[in-house]
Design goal:
Number of domains: 1
Strand content: 25-35%
Order of helices and strands: EHEEHE
Largest sheet: 4 strands, antiparallel
Shape: globular
Helix content: 25-40%
CATH class: Alpha Beta
Structural class: alpha+beta
Number of helices: 2
Number of strands: 4
Radius of gyration: 12 Å
């Protein structure tokens, strides 16, 4: 089973949105979903962040909930 989770993040975002995304990454690490998040550029508009998670479905639920609660639908997408 593939445990890799990839998220696409817009490069041009305001500082409040950037802080929310940093908080999401902190939540994923502090809740034990991952120890390391890898960063790549997709193109001029997006970054790709990826990590491997033992509890993949739980991590995806956490990310989805966070995106909805913080109104980040236009800035971050689960791939």
């Amino acid at each position: 089973m593939n445990r890799t989770i990839r998220i696409r993040i817009k490069k041009e975002i305001d500082s409040a949105t950037e802080n929310k995304i940093i908080q999401l990454k902190g939540i994923l690490i502090s809740r034990g979903f991952t120890d390391v998040i890898y960063f790549d550029d997709e193109d001029d508009s997006y970054h790709i962040n990826s990590f491997s998670a033992e509890k993949r479905n739980e991590a995806i639920e956490q990310i989805s909930s966070y995106i909805t609660e913080r109104s980040l639908q236009g800035s971050i997408t689960i791939l």
